[in-house]
Structures are given as C-alpha cells and as structure tokens.
Specification:
- The protein is built from 7 helices and no strands.
- By secondary structure, it is an all-alpha fold.
- It has a single domain, classed as Orthogonal Bundle (Arp2/3 complex 21 kDa subunit ARPC3), CATH 1.10.1760.
- Helix 3 packs across helix 4.
- It is globular and about 45 Å long.
- It starts with a helix and ends with a helix.
- About 25% of the residues are buried.
Amino acid sequence: MSRELIYYAILFVAMLLLQALICNHIVLFNVAVPIIFIYFIIRLPMSLSTNWVLTLSFLMGFCVDIFSDTPGMNALACTIFAIARRKIFTLYNSRDEHHAEIVPSISTLGFATYCKYLLTTTLCYCTLIFLIEYFSFSHLPMMLLKIVSSSVLTFLLLLGIDSLMARQS
C-alpha cells in the first residue's frame, strides 16, 4: 500500500469519527453547526480523477448520513460539492500543469489563497446542505443565518485543523 493511500484512509476515518462523535452534538447559539468532515473532500489531490472524487465524497456523505440519521442529505450535498470543488479551486489558481498535482493546504497554496478557497468551499457546502434540509424558502432568514454562521464556524475549525496538519508534516 502506498503511504498516501494510508494517509487518506486514516483521514477519512478520523474526520468521520470526529463528525459523528463530537460535532454532530454541537450547535452554537441554536444556529451554528460545525461540519468538519468536508475537510477530507477539500484535502483530496487535484490530480485525483473525477470518478474517484465523486465516489469518495459520496461514501463520506453516506457514512455521515448513517451516523447522523439524515437520510441521504449529506450524500447528495457531498456529491454536488465534489463536482464544484475543482471549479472553485480554479477560481483562485491558474490552470498551469503544475497545479494539477496540488493537494490544497496552507503550505501548498499560501495562507491568503487557501483561506479564499476554504471559505468558498465551506460556504458552498453549507449552502447545499441547508438548502437540502429546508427544501423551501419559507424560512429564508433562519436558513441564511444558519448558512453564514455554520460556514464561519466550519471555516475556523478547518483552518485550525489544516494548521495542525501543516505543523506535523
């Protein structure tokens, strides 16, 4: 087995367990929900084929759905998010050949670029999951509050996780 495969398998399990055992039980001010398992999807290499990214994202969402008792919501949001991930990445990076090998992190993209990428991806995922959850615009102010607050909380947590990962490398 390659070292990278073991790293991503451990990251998958760690993010799933952290989400299921800790983050699913945290709701700040009755609106902000930490969604840290998307770090696994964000951290996948840009060189990984779209089929693998979609499959791994669906599996992550499906596993979170099993632990969270949310029938298919995270699986759907993760699959759509996996499609948008590369497009979001190209917003902040040129399409040079050497960028295809990048694994998005603070150390590879730089702090400012990574923060823009991370904030956009967390906002995208939180928008997707809350649109799927509410499935209506009748409670628009509450939905927008949950999207913004959960995005900020998730962004800060993922930035902290990536900072810890960069120090260990």
